[in-house]
Design a protein that fits this description.
The protein is built from 15 helices and 16 strands. The protein is an alpha+beta fold and 413 residues long. The protein folds into two domains: 8-171 and 231-315, 2-Layer Sandwich (BirA Bifunctional Protein, domain 2); 325-412, Anticodon-binding domain (Rossmann fold, 3-Layer(aba) Sandwich). The strands form three sheets. An eight-stranded mixed sheet has the order 1-5-6-11-10-9-7-8. Strands 13-12-14-15-16 form a five-stranded mixed sheet, sandwiched between helices. Helix 1 packs antiparallel against helix 5. The longest helix is centred in the first third of the chain and has 20 residues, at 18-37. The radius of gyration is 27 Å and the shape is elongated. 36% of the residues are buried. Bound molecules: adenosine-5'-triphosphate (ATP) and magnesium ion. The site of adenosine-5'-triphosphate has 18 residues, from strand 6, strand 10, strand 11 and helix 11.
């Protein structure tokens, strides 16, 4: 009979295990803690949405919508799409769930997102994002709060060498004027542009500014900055954001070439960038999207937010994340093992992380305790049973002391 073949893992997906998984979990736990400090509410939304949620809000001309979405008809022939990001789904929920009554609403979420991309280090087809948004707040204070939150998250993760790059895309009037100037500039440099940028010129000219194609750089670098086109209001908004960052002690650098591809972006655009991940150097990105909710058919509603890639943040953690195990019980002999089962249950009920090593000789069991990353080993043999005391060994230095069974939980704390 032919051997049954093991199915392979789909390209661009990952099985996250061991140190990699602990780093991943550490990023999520830190995000959960920090978002609560900033009084952002946790929300969970569906993994798939009606395709139009993304098509209408992210925009048909973006890479995400035109090339990267996992879109499929379901069995009832409705077109569904696996979420490629969170913002559109959160905006949809804000409208369909009537969350306007809570505005301004500070939301945080995390989970898997899906994009059909060429997989490489730091770039996957199923990856994970953490995401923070403020919906219904047109004030620059919301932009500042989100940026300070992002900065604190990176600090608490101990991630260094990341810089906050900041730009303004102005208000609608500013943006239209700047766009016109950009089109005129790039029209004059048509011959120097890549094929992709010629397409962008017709559909999404701002996007040429952050093109990674070296052929585009001279024309992109010599393009006019937005500054000459900023209205008084747009200038005041940007100044308020930078003043807020300065007041909160968050370092930033102006990057006049930083744009967001989507038409609904207004005012603030930002990226936290590192040079440690090659061309996958953007770890956290976002901006203000005051036109998004309208594009979904809702009333004019301000919004600002960011998303960060959990895998990219996890890769930047300097230290491996050690498993946190308080102790491993090492029973020797059948009677000790029976007693250890009760002690193990008691210690776990007391809130301690404890495992049992019950295979092999003493030496192998101690090696297991070490491998699990435990701080202490609780050794129980016939002598210990007779005395009602366990031998508690500190694995770091090998020192050992006798602890009565009844007080083990205290001794481990
Ligand atoms: P990039 O320029 O790297 O493609 P992007 O502009 O498409 O990024 P966003 O849509 O702003 O990225 O997503 C926010 C964050 O999600 C990124 O800063 C990055 O950390 C992460 N991210 C984006 N795409 C991927 C991916 N395919 N695999 C892993 N992480 C990703
Ligand atoms: Mg992308």
């Amino acid at each position: 009979m032919a051997r049954i073949q093991t199915p392979h893992r789909v390209r661009g997906t990952q099985d996250i295990f061991g140190d990699e998984q602990r780093r991943f979990a550490h990023v999520l736990a830190t995000f959960e803690r920090v978002r609560a400090l900033y009084c952002f509410q946790r929300v969970d939304i569906p993994v798939f949405e009606a395709t139009e949620v993304f098509a209408r809000s992210i925009g048909e001309t973006t890479d995400v919508v035109s090339k990267e979405m996992y879109t499929f008809p379901d069995r009832g022939n409705d077109s569904l799409t696996l979420r490629p990001e969170f913002t559109a789904g959160l905006a949809r929920a804000y409208l369909t769930e009537g969350w306007q009554q809570y505005a301004p609403l500070k939301l945080a979420t995390s989970g898997a997102v899906f994009r059909y991309e060429r997989p490489q280090k730091g770039r996957y087809r199923q990856f994970h994002q953490i995401d923070a948004e403020v919906i219904g707040a047109p004030e620059p204070a919301a932009d500042v709060e989100l940026l300070v939150l992002a900065d604190q998250l990176l600090r608490e993760l101990g991630i260094e060498g990341v810089t906050l790059q900041l730009n303004t895309l102005g208000d609608a009037e500013t943006r239209d004027a700047w766009r016109e100037a950009l089109v005129a500039h790039f029209e004059a440099h048509r011959a120097d542009l890549s094929e992709d940028s010629l397409t962008r010129l017709a559909k999404n000219p701002l996007r040429i500014l952050d093109s990674k194609d070296p052929r585009d750089r001279p024309a992109a670098d010599s393009a006019p900055d937005i500054d000459a086109y900023l209205t008084v209001e747009a200038r005041a908004f940007f100044d308020a954001v930078t003043a807020g960052l300065d007041a909160a002690g968050v370092a930033w650098a102006r990057n006049p070439r930083l744009v967001r591809g989507l038409d609904y972006y207004r005012h603030t655009a930002f990226e936290f960038v590192t040079d440690r991940l090659g061309s996958q150097g953007t770890v956290l990105a976002g901006g203000r999207y005051d036109g998004l909710i309208e594009s979904l058919g809702g009333p004019a509603t301000a919004g600002v937010g960011w998303a960060a890639g959990v895998e990219r943040l996890a890769m930047l953690l300097d230290e491996p994340v050690a498993p946190t195990i308080d102790a491993v019980i090492v029973p020797m002999g059948a009677a000790a093992e029976a007693r250890a089962t009760g002690i193990l249950a008691d210690l776990r009920r007391a809130g301690l992380a404890v495992d049992m090593a019950y295979k092999g000789k003493m030496k192998q069991r101690m090696a297991k305790a070490d491998a699990l990353g435990a701080r202490k080993a609780i050794i129980i043999g016939d002598d210990e049973l007779a005395a009602g005391m366990a031998a508690v060994k500190l694995l770091a230095d090998g020192s050992q002391r006798a602890v009565p069974f009844a007080t083990l939980a205290e001794a481990l704390r």
